[in-house]
Amino acid sequence: MELIVYLAGQIHDDWRDQLRKKAEERGLPLVFKGPQEDHDRSDDIGETIKGEQPTIEYRDQVASEMNNLRTRIWMSKADVVIALFGEKYRQWNTAMDAAVALQAGKPLILVRPPELIHPLKELGQRAQVVVETPDQALDALAYVLEQ
Amino acid sequence: MELIVYLAGQIHDDWRDQLRKKAEERGLPLVFKGPQEDHDRSDDIGETIKGEQPTIEYRDQVASEMNNLRTRIWMSKADVVIALFGEKYRQWNTAMDAAVALQAGKPLILVRPPELIHPLKELGQRAQVVVETPDQALDALAYVLEQ
Amino acid sequence: MELIVYLAGQIHDDWRDQLRKKAEERGLPLVFKGPQEDHDRSDDIGETIKGEQPTIEYRDQVASEMNNLRTRIWMSKADVVIALFGEKYRQWNTAMDAAVALQAGKPLILVRPPELIHPLKELGQRAQVVVETPDQALDALAYVLEQ
Amino acid sequence: MELIVYLAGQIHDDWRDQLRKKAEERGLPLVFKGPQEDHDRSDDIGETIKGEQPTIEYRDQVASEMNNLRTRIWMSKADVVIALFGEKYRQWNTAMDAAVALQAGKPLILVRPPELIHPLKELGQRAQVVVETPDQALDALAYVLEQ
Amino acid sequence: MELIVYLAGQIHDDWRDQLRKKAEERGLPLVFKGPQEDHDRSDDIGETIKGEQPTIEYRDQVASEMNNLRTRIWMSKADVVIALFGEKYRQWNTAMDAAVALQAGKPLILVRPPELIHPLKELGQRAQVVVETPDQALDALAYVLEQ
Amino acid sequence: MELIVYLAGQIHDDWRDQLRKKAEERGLPLVFKGPQEDHDRSDDIGETIKGEQPTIEYRDQVASEMNNLRTRIWMSKADVVIALFGEKYRQWNTAMDAAVALQAGKPLILVRPPELIHPLKELGQRAQVVVETPDQALDALAYVLEQ
Amino acid sequence: MELIVYLAGQIHDDWRDQLRKKAEERGLPLVFKGPQEDHDRSDDIGETIKGEQPTIEYRDQVASEMNNLRTRIWMSKADVVIALFGEKYRQWNTAMDAAVALQAGKPLILVRPPELIHPLKELGQRAQVVVETPDQALDALAYVLEQ
Amino acid sequence: MELIVYLAGQIHDDWRDQLRKKAEERGLPLVFKGPQEDHDRSDDIGETIKGEQPTIEYRDQVASEMNNLRTRIWMSKADVVIALFGEKYRQWNTAMDAAVALQAGKPLILVRPPELIHPLKELGQRAQVVVETPDQALDALAYVLEQ
User: Fold this and answer.
1) What is the DSSP letter of G116?
2) Is A87 left (phi over 0), alpha (psi -120 to 50) or beta?
3) Residue G80, pLDDT score
4) Which domain of life does the protein's organism represent (chains A, B, C, D, E, F, G, H) (predicted)?
């Protein structure tokens, strides 16, 4: 039985690809879904589909229509959500996806470096699992799939 | 008929008090609830109740037990949620509260300065109302209560 | 025990006021809520609160933020929804409110003239009660409150 | 992973067939469902199955029993709903299906020409995506399915 | 704290009045709601409000619109449901109300004479409490309200 | 795409087998589930599994544990429920299953002879489709599966 | 605004009375509900209401009908649940009430002595707050009610 | 059609293996899921993944993060839950899993020896089926799968 995993979090490095590769190497029956990982395409997608908008604000809004469509469809199909926070970005989207998972009753695995313990303490306290690296998140899922 | 309003967001200035005062001046039947506004008390509350913890991480965790208890009780009673973001803080708690409201089907009023349009674009696109000042949020609630 | 009634439907005549008056005359413990009935205020409210918008489309969007906030808050508190359709207007808002009530499990009373039987047949078939005048809707609620 | 798309909206032209064909040409894993597209069959189906009814109103009602059965079954299986409005018809069914999707938490893609911005402004403000052509709706779904 | 009790079941004798009287004598803070108890009014109410119908079947249908409106409103406000079955009537309405309570997660108290144990065994097995007389149902509620 | 259909109703004739056969003949992708159709096995199953019980009442109760287990599992997987009532039996189980479907938001097809219009009027008014024969119920499902 | 608190847990000492008294002394607007605290009455209540049963097992079952009725009614009205575990008893009821609260989305405050950390570790990890004494639970609620 | 069965309960003997073997011998289309059955691995898993913790309490907590992740994922996919209690262990986890199933509306089969009738009476009264051996639980599922 495959599990569907939604990968919320930053799209500025290749952590998703690495996770996919490692899961495959370990033979774990996991299907990963997530946001658009090409940052420019993510910012442009609204105007790409709907045409130029009158202001920057509305350009952002139409991009978000498409990004939120994507997130909502895959989140609703996910069995579990991994949300990764890093030092560099504000990542309110990640917090949003994580909290949507909480309220929808989907188990949340929070990944964050030790430096973020304090600012993420409320989210961490409500997550099902809190770890520091994506590898540990994969270990947790491997444990679910054991035996 | 009174409406219960949960005020998510930063606890570093007195925006909640000002909102309460203005609502009272306008005679609006609004009851405001929110997180602990005394920052030190909010950080200390876990150890105040449960005693000293072995590490900083666990000190944060026990504080969050209490803060999340408070948030969950009042959020579940709220008719509407106002979430205010400012420039200075990371405010993942605010994003968490806002997204819990979204997923729970409670109308969300997002308050954020123009500088935050881009990083908050996905949350903004799913909020019911997006404004720039707490006064505008109050105007929106006054409109709900008209006639 | 009071019942809260949401009055969806056109805002171009005074059917809500007449209903309120008749309910009062009959001594029925009903509290009526509904959309903004001042049409111009309803169209202007977005720019009134948020300021001028770059296009007509966005002017409409910000007005709808406020109108939908109002509708969602009162609909979520309503025990029953009355949706009135007339010949003159397209009234997609009325259909939207009626269907939200259906899906939320709130009983829907549909009021429509005989001329609209055919175009409203699917909505009528799923409504709890279908009548032709607001007075009949009030009769139905009076029956609920009997003895 | 296939996505199931419910196509709400007018049944007077072949927009669904065109959408199916284009999705196939682009190799998108989409399964489309929707209402009965043969208008006469849709109006006759109640009497076809249940026999002649005493009045026009009841003829319409029994047709709606069957049409609503169809809509409810496929809507409940859909991952996403596209609702298309055109100038010519009143399309309260489309508004009903769209609002059922909203309240059920299913992402809604609203397709409407610019002329309908104003009358559909409240529905548009709550939709996940608003576009002007079915092709743009398909673009949005293609974006969801990317990588 | 008052509890709201919905009294489903036959309307051919005065068991509801007796229950109300006994609850009052015992000083129990119970508010009783239920269907229309005047049988003729219950059968006539559709035509009383909507006018004469073309067939007996449709006369029954319009009466049910009103009776179901009443039941749905009070059932949705009830804290607990008492469903009474007797020997004389088929009482499919009672079974319907009882099962709606089951599926809505509302505690159900089933009252039935020993002769009905076998035909009501599946419903009885899913009820929260099964007794043989309305007085025993009242005893059960009094126990809930103790201390 | 297959649809799962739960067949509630009497187990004293072979209407389910006939329906299965006809569906197969028409090539309809329907999977039928339902209660135990061997009446004696249904009454004995509790004692068959759990051993002899001290009274008739408890014999019935343990049988119902098993019958309700079966019904709950298959009902929860069903896309649509057909409930058939006949003249001869009290069939409170059928009414229970039908109402569970109503409250769970699953479309209900009610099958009943004209003689039962009056006693089943409230259930009929809330069903999605009401017909007089199982063949008509199959016609309705065939319509859902068309095109 | 009063909060309703359900007090799950052992009924063999007077911890609930002490909690009520302390809450009153501190002026906290809390309404406490809970199971029957008179142990013998709790064990006898089924036979008291329904008469003598054929076996000990069925005596226990009928008592549980009444005890579960009580628990379900007050739990469904509670804003927060306190579950207290002690060393002496098995208290599967307490675990049941605690887990019902978890799944219903109601915040759970778990009270348990340090000796029970290991056997209660899974429940503790999902509770909102974990403390060692009822006084600490009251402190947590007082914190919720501050300012 | 396969059914997914979650096996809650003690992990100190091989009852799950025996059940799997017997189901296979009988050709029943059942997929069994459950907690980690290697007791030491279950206790160590938190520190195995997250590293050494400062106290025993926190060691237990991190183990529970992983064990609860596993339980929540498989419970949410289960069609039915079997919860087995034995004499030797406190098994609050089993009670927790059983009650989560109750509140989630999933049918629960409770397996317990006669000695535990009294302490488990409230849980037993709310379970769908109560038996004394895992073989009887399998019989009940076989009955569900018959014809």
Assistant:
1) G
2) alpha
3) 98
4) Bacteria
CA atoms within 13 A on the CB side of D39: 8
The residue of chain G with its CA nearest to that of B63 is G129
- Spacing of C-alpha B35 from chain mean position: 7
Of B3, B8, B4, which Cα lies nearest the Cα of B100?
B8
Task: Please give the pLDDT value at position F25.
Answer: 98
ipTM here: 0.95
What dihedral do alpha carbons A13, A15, A21, A24 form, nearest 10°? -150
CB–CB of G106/H103 below 8 Å?
A: no
User: What does the pLDDT read at residue G87?
Assistant: 80
CA distance E140 to chain C (A): 24
Query: At A82, is the secondary structure helix, strand, or coil?
Result: strand
Query: What phi and psi values does residue A25 have, to the nearest 5 degrees?
Result: -60, -35
The residues pairing with B80 across neighbouring beta strands, listed in sequence order, are B5
Chain F residues whose CB is inside 8 A of the D73 CB are 3, 79-80, 107, 144
pLDDT score of A24:
97
Count helices and strands (H / E) in chain D. Answer: 6, 5
Please give the backbone phi and psi of residue A30, each rounded to the nearest 5 degrees, phi first.
-115, 135
Q: Which residues pair with F5 in a beta bridge?
A: F32, F80
How far apart CA G136 and CA G130 sit, in angstroms, is: 9
Which one-letter amino acid corresponds to residue E44? D
What percentage of chain B reaches a pLDDT higher than 90? 92
Tokens of G115: 């000796």
F109-128 per-residue burial string, b: 16 or more CB within 10 A, e: under 16: bbbbeeebbebbbbbbbbbb
Q: Tell me which chain B residues have a C-beta less than 8 angstroms from the C-beta of A122.
A: 64, 67-68, 71, 92-93, 96
Distance from C-alpha of B108 to C-alpha of B106, rounded to nearest angstrom: 6
Contact assessment for residue G116 and residue G124, using Cβ atoms and an 8 Å cutoff: no
Q: Phi and psi dihedrals of H113, rounded to 5?
A: -70, 160
Listed in sequence order, the residues at least 6 apart from H124 whose beta carbon sits closer than 8 Å to its beta carbon are G60, G61, G64, H110, H112, H117, H130
Token pair 């994003």 in the structure block, residue = B95
Which amino acid belongs to residue H57?
E
Beta strands in E2-51 (DSSP E): 3-9, 30-33
What is this structure's pTM?
Answer: 0.97
Q: List the structure tokens of A98.
A: 């994580």
C71-115 tens-digit pLDDT: 999 999 999 999 999 987 778 999 999 999 999 999 999 999 999
Task: Considering only residues G89 and C47, tell me which one the structure prediction assigns the higher pLDDT.
Answer: C47
H141 pLDDT higher than 80:
yes
SS3 F19: helix
The CA-CA-CA angle for residues D11, A65, A94, to 5°, reads 140
Give the pLDDT score at A91. 87
pLDDT tens digits for range D31-44: 999 999 999 999 99
Query: Residue D8 in contact with residue D83, Cβ under 8 Å?
Result: yes
Residue E58 forms contact with D (CB below 8 Å): yes
Alpha-carbon radius of gyration of chain G:
16
Tell me, what's the pLDDT at B89?
A: 74
Task: Give the pLDDT mean for B36-56.
Answer: 96
* pLDDT for res A88: 78
Alpha-carbon torsion (A53, A58, A59, A63), positive or negative: negative
What letter represents residue E66's amino acid? M
Could you tell me if A56 lies within 8 Å of chain C, comparing CB atoms? no
- The pLDDT assigned to F31 comes to 98
Of B96, B61, B60, B44, whose CA–CA distance to B75 is shortest? Answer: B96
Q: Is H87 left (phi over 0), alpha (psi -120 to 50) or beta?
A: alpha
Residues of E in Cβ contact (< 8 Å) with D58: 54, 58
φ, ψ at B88 (rounded to 5°): -80, -30
Lowest mean per-residue pLDDT among E127-136, G76-85, G108-117, H89-98: H89-98
